[in-house]
């Protein structure tokens, strides 16, 4: 590397590609391809005085030089003054912010001396700001260990302390700058303040609908087995232990969970429910445990608390727990046992006080044997067990339950159901349990004319041809007699058979053509009547009626009806 000094009027200046200049790029020869301008150099006043003295020019130039440098100094001083004023304003702003924070704040410098102490900290720790500023924190407040992060390099969060008969929650954080620790910050909260914050959070949770709506009074039924389980559940409610509710789909497991929560000491806390089978693995994990900001694309700014955090001091209801993925079972077990959760993308543990109520329609013990469910999680959940018997084992409850549902619409079993349909309802197997019973009730209310009672032919067609459906004193396969008793049923099944045959060839059918084929089959009807039957079949999900001239076609559900009746 060669450095060649060059100045104006230098004879035969060297031809180089690179020139370095102190703010005089206009003097660089045009043939230089790369110019590096390092800016103007400031020469110290004493240096300039010495140069002038050497050349015997001091007397002639001293005044001019002094004036010029004074001008520069004044300019620099003015800029420095503005900068200091800005910094002073910033310091005042930060001081105002720190004083208005609702938490106690104490900060120390690299030497461990207190440089910041707000009014809340003064009151909380019984100190005076002017007396502790500049003092070593470990001497003034030894029990708080404010400078501990400076030696460990780690933050301490949610540490409970008893200080002068006050229960305090503190956080200690190291202050880092230029890859070095330059101090520490302590923030402190009195538990009374924490409780106020939690109360506000619970109020927010309630506004989001995380509240139990039902009690044991809402669980109807006189079946002895059910009453025994309700009695057990009432005892379990007061024990604040994990409860596992088992029962088939539609038996009312969530209703039981609501009732247990409302009879417990946590009834004033949130009731947070999640269906573990309704979400994919990644989304289920983030819902349960929450996530930190920036953990994945589209993540909410500031992160999001999980359901464990939202259920703090309340109940977390995990429905369909048997469907939870194995990867999440590990984290769930830790959260239940340690009462701590870690958000996705986070590195700190968050304490949670949550009661777990889990529900399943599967045999968890069998899943454990198949290695599909963790044995340790099973035993952690299977502490207090409630079993809700299916509706087919509670025949005496079917009509009273339906009567309760009918009264919501101003009707009753006595004035709405014929004796025949009552026998059928009791005889039916109810694979969908109470949920299916409500569906049937609402279907009948919507379709039966107000001037008569509901009859067997008014039941949904998939109910009537269900393998468990039997007319009194008949065999299950006596479909011919069944069809004779119900003109609507006969028409509906004929329509489904025609559509099923056409669907094999990828064809649909309109009302006019359907009327012709029905007449050929010996079923006299009209287009208006066909329109009514098509609408009823579509409401039951058995056919799909297209707009315009596209015609109608049978659904998979409708095909199963046809396939289940070989005599059609």
Compose a concise summary of this entry.
This protein is an alpha/beta fold and 568 residues long. The protein is 45% helix and 15% strand.
Characteristic terms for this protein:
568 residues; alpha/beta; Beta-Lactamase; Rossmann fold; Helicase, Ruva Protein, domain 3; five-stranded antiparallel beta sheet; five-stranded parallel beta sheet; 15% strand
Verbal overview:
By secondary structure, this protein is an alpha/beta fold. The protein has four domains: 93 residues, Beta-Lactamase, CATH 3.30.450.20; 172 residues, P-loop containing nucleotide triphosphate hydrolases (Rossmann fold, 3-Layer(aba) Sandwich), CATH 3.40.50; 64 residues, Helicase, Ruva Protein, domain 3, CATH 1.10.8; 79 residues, Arc Repressor Mutant, subunit A.
CATH class of the largest domain, anyone?
Alpha Beta
Mean pLDDT: 83
CATH fourth-tier homologous superfamily of the largest domain:
P-loop containing nucleotide triphosphate hydrolases
Number of strands: 18
CATH architecture of the largest domain: 3-Layer(aba) Sandwich
Helix content: 40-55%
What is the straight-line distance between the termini? Answer: 101 Å
What is the C-alpha radius of gyration, as a whole number of Å?
A: 41 Å
CATH topology of the largest domain: Rossmann fold
Shape verdict: elongated
The total count of helices amounts to 24
Query: What is the structural class?
Result: alpha/beta
Number of domains: 4
Largest sheet: 5 strands, antiparallel
* Low confidence ranges: 469-486
Strand proportion, as a percent range, falls in 15-25%
